[in-house]
Amino acid sequence: MNSSVLPLIANPLSYKTHSSNGKERFMKKTVCVVCVSLIFLVTAVAAQNLALKGGTVLTVTKGIIEGGTVLIQEGKITAVGKNVSIPEGVKVIDCSGKYVMPGLIDNHTHIAFDFGDVNEMTDPVTPQVWMKEALYPEDHKILTTLAGGVTTVKTMHGSANVIGGVNVTIKLKYHALPAEMIVEGARHQLKMALGENPKRFYGQQQGRMPSTRMGNAYVMRKAFIEAQEYKAKWDKYEKDKAGGKKDLVPPKKDLKMETLKMVLEKKLSIDCHTYRADEIVWIINFCKEFDIDLMTMSHVIDGYKVADVIAEAGVSFGGWVDWWGYKEEAYDGCPWGFQIMHDAGVNMCINSDSPDEGRYLFRNAGKVLKYTDIPEEDVLKMISINPAKSLELDHRIGSIEVGKDGDIAVFAKHPLDSTTKCVMTIIEGKVYFDYAKHSMTAKGGYGE
Amino acid sequence: MAVSLFFVVALLAFPQDTLLIRNGTIVPVVGETIPNGSVLIQDGKIVKVAADITAPAGAKIIDAEGKIVFPGIVAAMTAIGVTGYPGAGNDVNELGVTTPHVDPYDALNPEDSTIAVTRIGGVTTVMTISGTMNVINGKSVVINLNGNLAEEMICKRDVAQIFNMGAKGQSMYGPPRAGKYPTTLPGIAALVRSKLDQAKMYAAKATATPKKEDQKSEGGKAHPQKRDLGMEALVPVVQGKMPAVFITHNEVTIRNALSIIDEYNLKGILYARAGILKYADRLAAKKIPVIWAGTTTIPDKWEPFDLNYHTASILAEKGVLFCFDLLGFGVNSHNVRNTPVPASISVAHGLPEEEALKALTINPAKILGVENLFGSLESGKVANIAIWSGSPLQMSSRVEKVFIKGKEIPMTSFQTRLRDKFEKIVAERIQRKQGKK
């Protein structure tokens, strides 16, 4: 089976060949491990108590444990270490020779919707729409994404509107009920968008405002000024009511304004689609002006040009490593920009915005090592704890720590090795993806 | 000025340098890997690949210790050189339903920024096509990604004619052309057949002996046939001299393409995004090569999640000649440097590395008919070489040096210039702010 044709390439399968500082922790000296003989001891899917035993545990926040065990009980991680005693009755999954990391997090995707449910393209301001109301747990792209080790995604409204809908953060519990998938306990993020997309959808295609970046700015500002007025009315009403005033007539409810009022009250935060450096600075200032929380910017193609400004504002970067050129505002994409932003202290997240790329975030993360000298542990954070922070869920997900959710991805080789594959994905202690069962190479194949 | 320009051109046209790359792990693709081996380059060509080569007098020596010496990657379907800046700079996809006469050579721009971005990613040779949106799209050229003038980049013109068996509309996934034939798959197949029939008749007319009455009226000469540039472009296709690439999208479009290749005895090449496995045996038997662009296609709901991840390994097993493509036409020409991505995914799912590396180099060279020039490190081939820090199948591997026709290429692009500029600007601004505090 040792059919490698490149036995003479030094570590042909090592993703880490240009290391200058000898940090070779992950490097496997022996190459071409006999292919995929999965020796999982269990095939049952419905266990909430699991022990993942004997793998190289990449905790992301607390170092690497060779031959470690991760114990999950009642959906939560209860023990992590070399010598974990496994209580009787807990199912054991042998992970020796494999890599165990926290379930990957994609903070920008559009899966788990039916086609056409991404952009409410009828008005440039639609904060009244909530993506959770279109959630489609039967979308098979949930499974194809799970097969890339992803457990949590922020699945989003599109970028046609200056103010779009409210995104929803979900766990990829394929076939579950929508309510079981939605992650509660953290603020969801309202989608906003600047630049060419709203200009194209409204100005060019519908002959209405906005058709320029000035128009984008006006539409966004006008909506938030109205929301401030709306909030003031309601605040006064609530205050009067609390003060015991009689015969009060409540202001008229407006669902658009209700959502924006929640943003002003910081019950929702914002993810803004940006490309150009001037827009990035503009939206940071805009959110300061209205005292609203910009948690994440998506795409941020020019982010490296204003890396210091993004870092100071404490906004997360959510983008790709090397996409560029597909439209004018994407022309200055530069993969080396990751180094500039990382050095400036930006919270960097690699996301997909694509059901295709969302299946191999780990492979895309490997590209960061090509273009930068960012340490591996920080690169792994870009697909785990960093997006967890951008979602304000880092207390629950994004690393392997006691007390966190039992969301785990098991890889055949190190996740930054481009020839690896995910062999198992676990959410809250339950196996949702198992290569040995779902692969076309599995006995019977076509397993679902 | 004119004189110095002449010298520059002369130097480019006749590179005299002798170059010895040594101490590297030579992965010639064709032939055994040589640890600590050498490659000798003279006049832009590889003259020797061996474990130990003594440096000729005056040779420039490049030490590749600990590095991988690999042939330049060959990318099969791109629009590099004709896309350039989005909008007016984009010359892909001329309007029309059949535009076989359109030639990307006529728009080839050596200043296209995708050229430098792509070559410093280890891709040295590409086929550039004129588009994909029409039923018959036009001609194609194979170019090296270096040259001050289009002529210096050209390796081969009239490489193949590009047909799209699913071109229902003006955009790949868009709605059908409003009220304009054809809008269905059988309509497309019928149109292709009728155009090929016309081309056969056109060719027959051109070579027919003149009729008696014509001889009288035209002084013994046949009526000169009215020239039709579209037909002229299709004649070599129906004569089996110029390959025809059929872009396919699913089982039906593959079947239609294979039928037409059969009926018209064409030199067919399949470009496939899905649904290819059922036809693997037939493709192998008929020796029809495949440009496989479907590794990253998301399978249909009823298919296993890894169907397309495994496809390359099954094609290799069945002996189909295939190469990787990353849907690299149109604006996606910007990402041709990522051609190894589908190769690495396929290796993760069972494709032997050897086959993956071939499918990035010698296989596309064979499919494009330029295997005598490119695709491996062998004596006599053009010295298109990249020195990598590690396996080209690893996303983390860096391309450290690139040679095209034996000439060392500066490792700079539009993007490295942006990097250098803004590294400085951001650092200075941070310093200024710290100064203020």
Write the layout of secondary structure elements.
The complex is a heterodimer of chains A (448) and B (437).
Chain A: E1 50-58, E2 64-73, E3 76-81, E4 91-94, E5 99-102, E6 104-109, H1 141-146, E7 150-155, E8 163-166, E9 168-171, H2 178-181, E10 189-193, H3 196-206, H4 213-242, H5 255-264, E11 269-274, H6 277-289, E12 294-299, H7 307-313, E13 316-319, H8 337-344, E14 348-350, H9 361-371, H10 376-381, H11 385-390, E15 408-411, E16 422-427, E17 430-434, H12 435-438
Parallel strand pairs in A: 1-4, 1-5, 6-7, 10-11, 11-12, 12-13, 13-14
Antiparallel strand pairs in A: 1-2, 2-3, 5-15, 7-9, 8-10, 15-16, 16-17
Chain B: H1 2-13, E1 18-26, E2 34-42, E3 45-50, E4 60-63, E5 68-71, E6 73-78, H2 113-119, E7 123-129, E8 136-138, E9 140-144, H3 150-153, E10 154-156, E11 161-164, H4 185-207, H5 212-217, H6 229-238, E12 244-247, H7 251-263, E13 268-272, H8 280-286, E14 290-292, H9 307-317, E15 322-324, H10 340-348, H11 353-358, H12 362-367, E16 385-388, E17 399-404, E18 407-409, H13 414-436
Parallel strand pairs in B: 1-4, 1-5, 6-7, 11-12, 12-13, 13-14, 14-15
Antiparallel strand pairs in B: 1-2, 2-3, 5-16, 7-9, 8-11, 9-10, 16-17, 17-18
Helix pairs in contact in B: 4-6, 4-7, 9-10
How does this model look, in words?
- The complex is a heterodimer of chains A (448) and B (437).
- Chain A has two domains: 31-103 and 399-448, Roll (Urease, subunit C, domain 1), CATH 2.30.40.10; 104-397, TIM Barrel (Alpha-Beta Barrel).
- In chain A, 26% of the residues lie in helices and 21% in strands.
- Chain A contains twelve helices and 17 strands.
- Chain A has helices at residues 141-146, 178-181, 196-206, 213-242, 255-264, 277-289, 307-313, 337-344, 361-371, 376-381, 385-390, 435-438; strands spanning 50-58, 64-73, 76-81, 91-94, 99-102, 104-109, 150-155, 163-166, 168-171, 189-193, 269-274, 294-299, 316-319, 348-350, 408-411, 422-427, 430-434.
- In chain A, helix 4 crosses helix 5 and helix 7 runs parallel beside helix 8.
- The longest helix of chain A is centred in the middle third of the chain and has 30 residues, at 213-242.
- Chain B has 13 helices and 18 strands.
- In chain B, helix 2 (113-119) links the parallel strand 6 and strand 7 (123-129).
- Chain B folds into two domains: 12-72 and 375-437, Urease, subunit C, domain 1, CATH 2.30.40.10; 73-372, Metal-dependent hydrolases (TIM Barrel), CATH 3.20.20.140.
- In chain B, strands 1, 2, 3, 4, 5, 16, 17 and 18 form an eight-stranded mixed β-sheet that branches.
- Chain B starts with a helix and ends with a helix.
- Chain B has 437 residues and is α/β, with parallel strands linked by helices.
- The interface between A and B is large, with 70 and 62 residues.
